[in-house]
Design a protein that fits this description.
This protein is α+β, with helices and mostly antiparallel strands and 779 residues long. The chain has 23 helices and 26 strands.
Length: 779
């Protein structure tokens, strides 16, 4: 509001009425009681001066006086008055917010004091009826315009007005109710209805329940269908305030959240997993503790509130996390609960967060009993009320905020004349309060700014908008400095601008840092270009290396008539350490058998096949190089007719000179299949990883298995079972076995195709950390 001062007030000794009486009447009248009054008199009597000030005058000026002094004093008192009005408005807003939070806390407390969903709904409607001072509060389920029926599970009314008297009854859906539900579901917030609103109360409701005004909103529990929540005003046509609509919206949201929790509790007997999954993601903290104050269960909300993981909480008691000053009050009630003196209790208390900060928690505690009546464990719900406590503290701090601000704060009139500066202004500019009052902010102009900046500033704030920008100004001592300013209009109740408020921060150091950063960015850009060029060169070289590596592998499917083998490999990076190889040994064996008195020579074709899948430890180029060494050494071994165990011992010695100094090794899955006409079996060699010399020294073990026609043998590297999906889960041996069991066994090729499809369906586009190699053999 704008206060105009009269510089020709009535004198104390005016005929018929003196100044004291005028002051008394002004202070008695509510419309003028807050106006600042200044006595202007030639009377120097100290008693009269004290009397005037005690009656509420803000100043007492004795003639003779200077006009400039009068004007300055009036301006000062008007500025103080207007700032006080602004502070009162802010206090009113904060008080309204605190009142909002307190009402929500009342609802929270009512809901948290019971574990029964029916009692919870009744308690929530009782609180709603009380807080909104309405005549009826109700819930309808489901809020589904396509449902065949609906019902009213709970309805609370004042004694003067009856309810629908159809609680829990299935009511056929009609077009009127269906349309109300459809509108509510499409709305983004509460819908106010009545003769003064766009939405009207249904005539049937007006006639049967005498409703004149209504608010309704849809609430969405995490489980089940939506509900319709509403209140009626029957005594008069009520205009709902914005604060009431916002509070009603929050009531609906909290009741919706609570529905989810209570529905989950009701289903706990049917599914403990469902119970844990829901409460793990609940917006309200839920915990179970032992009689010794240890945590038995705490959901994610509790862990987030306290900052501890579940593993950490299990090592602590809730008493250890309680703020010391609040522990005694909690323990006293806890012991009364264990002794059976009380069934439950609630408490506002402080916990110590893992990071050392204090969090304010509303805790509702109740006991769960064994069949013999003794306490089994303790159930508690926890609600973080830190924000509410902080708001209350903010209200206490507001009156000191302006004076203690670390930013420069300046208030001017519409002409730009300074009427108020905070202490930080003097610290930042060098001008004292008295030097600044009455001046124009142009006293700080440096002459370094484009005049267009100032024109734009004034055009913006005169339009009633906020201007923000950077300025280079000059201190009293001539030193230049940069400021970031936010200048906004201060408006009265009528929306008229009365003053301008500037909040400014010194950004000199930031500007200096920006200049340095700009120079650094130029250098960084040049470095990035060089690195990009180098990266492109490296990518070209890696592509060539991949082509070379693939050229080392034999064909994915050898042309063998008696054995079907198909191979697949894919590196995790451009090149990798996995490989596969195979070899066919062919020789002839002549045996002599005695048949009667004759000796008969028989000639068998001995066909042996070696198949191997290798995995060199490490990744990238180094693993690829060692892979090439291991592969070439193994292929070279095939020219010698070594037994399988001796072949691997030679290979261990052959590559250890390359792998051992680098602490690397080669894991090799190696089999030989003997397909003579008289027998079919598989030799599998097992033992130490290659490349460390241990296998050559200790030897390798050979295992022989009989195979039948149609049998399938699958070799994979560990990158297959350790393949991950988008969520980080491993494929694993069990899942791989399930894939193999479900796969077609008509051919090795079909088996490999099925394995690839299922493995890559699992991994999706997730980046793999290990190479994958698979070889499928069918006898």
């Amino acid at each position: 509001m704008t206060v105009k001062a009269s510089l020709d007030p009535p004198k104390i000794y005016s005929p018929g009425i003196d100044g004291f009486e005028t002051c008394r009447r002004l202070k008695k009248d509510e419309t003028t009681s807050n106006l600042p009054i200044i006595f202007l008199t030639a009377n120097t009597d100290t008693v009269d001066k004290i009397k005037g000030l005690e009656m509420g005058a803000v100043d007492y000026i004795i003639k003779p006086f200077e006009t400039a002094e009068i004007v300055a004093r009036v301006r000062k008192h008007l500025t103080i008055y207007n700032l006080q009005k602004q502070l009162e408005e802010k206090n009113t807003q904060l008080q309204a917010h605190v009142h909002h939070l307190e009402n929500l806390a009342t609802l929270e407390k009512a809901i948290n004091e019971t574990q029964d969903i029916v009692q919870m709904m009744n308690s929530a409607m009782q609180v709603t009826l009380s807080v909104f001072k309405c005549d009826r509060a109700w819930l309808i389920y489901p809020c589904d315009p396509d449902a065949p029926t609906w019902q009213i599970p709970v309805e609370i009314t004042t004694p003067e007005y009856h309810g629908a008297n159809i609680l829990g009854t299935d009511i056929p859906m009609d077009s009127t109710v269906s349309e109300v539900m459809r509108i509510s579901l499409s709305a983004t917030g509460p819908i106010a209805s009545g003769d003064m609103y766009e939405h009207k109360v249904a005539p049937m409701i007006v006639k049967e329940l005498a409703v004149q005004s209504q608010i309704s909103t849809t609430i969405h529990p995490k489980i089940g269908s939506p509900w319709l929540f509403g209140i009626h005003q029957c005594s008069h046509a009520r205009v709902w305030t914005e604060n009431e609509l916002n509070l009603f919206r929050d009531f609906g949201q909290y009741i919706g959240q609570s529905f989810g929790i209570f529905i989950s509790l009701k289903r706990l007997q049917d599914s403990e997993k469902q119970f844990r999954d829901y409460f793990e993601s609940a917006l309200i903290g839920f915990a179970i503790t032992s009689l010794e104050k240890n945590w038995v269960y705490a959901n994610k909300c509790v862990r987030d509130i306290l900052g501890y993981s579940w593993e950490e909480l299990q090592k602590l008691s809730w008493a250890e996390l309680t703020y010391p000053d609040d522990l005694t009050a909690d323990v006293v009630q806890f012991e009364q609960l264990l002794a059976g003196k009380i069934d439950s209790y609630t408490i506002d208390k402080r916990f110590i967060h893992k990071n050392g900060s204090i969090v304010y928690i509303f805790v509702s505690v109740m006991a769960h009993y064994k069949e013999n009546g003794t306490v089994d464990y303790i159930v508690a719900t926890l609600q973080d009320i830190t924000e509410r406590k902080q708001t209350e503290e903010q209200l206490r701090k507001l009156s000191r905020a302006v004076e203690q601000s670390g930013s420069t704060i300046v208030i001017t009139n519409l002409d730009g004349t300074i009427e108020f500066v905070n202490p930080f202004f003097s610290k930042a500019t060098g001008y004292s309060y008295d030097e600044a009052i009455g001046q124009n902010p142009r006293v700080l102009k440096s002459g370094k700014m484009d005049p267009e900046v100032y024109r734009n500033l004034w055009d913006t704030i005169k339009r009633g908008e906020v201007w923000q920008g950077e300025m280079i100004n000059k201190k009293k001592n001539g030193e230049l400095y940069w400021e970031y300013a936010t200048i906004s209009p201060v408006k009265n109740e009528m929306g008229q601008t009365t003053h301008y408020l500037a909040i400014k921060d010194d950004i000199t150091e930031r500007k200096r840092a920006e200049n340095e950063l700009q120079k650094a960015n130029i250098n960084l850009s040049k470095t990035n270009q060089d690195l990009q060029l180098l990266n492109n060169q490296m990518q070209d070289e890696l592509s060539l290396a991949r082509e070379i590596q693939y050229s080392l592998f034999p064909e994915p499917q050898p042309d063998w008539s008696q054995l079907e083998v198909v191979c697949f490999t894919m590196p995790a990076q451009s090149v990798g350490g996995d490989f596969y190889t195979y070899h066919k040994f062919t020789s002839h064996l002549v045996t002599t058998q005695s048949i009667g008195t004759e000796e008969v020579n028989s000639r068998d074709t001995v066909q042996r096949y070696a198949i191997a899948v290798g995995d060199v430890s490490g990744k990238g180029v180094s693993a690829a190089l060692l892979m090439a060494v291991s592969l070439s050494q193994l292929n070279a071994m095939f020219v010698h007719d070594y037994p399988p165990t001796e072949r691997l011992a030679h290979l261990d010695e052959g590559i250890m000179h390359y792998t051992k100094p680098r602490q690397q090794n080669c894991a090799l899955c190696y089999i030989e299949i003997d397909k003579t006409e008289s027998k079919r079996h598989k030799d599998e060699i097992g033992g130490f990883a290659l490349g460390q010399g241990i296998g050559a020294m200790m030897g390798y073990q050979q295992h022989t298995f009989e195979l039948a026609p149609g049998d399938i043998v699958i070799l994979t590297s560990d990158g297959v079972v350790e393949a991950i999906n988008r969520t980080g889960k491993l494929l694993g041996f069990e899942r791989l076995m399930e894939i193999i069991i479900d796969a077609p066994t008509t051919s090795a090729k079909n088996m490999l195709k099925h394995l690839n499809q299922e493995v890559f369906a699992f991994t999706g586009d997730a980046k793999q950390h290990d190479d994958m190699t698979m070889v499928v053999i069918q006898i």
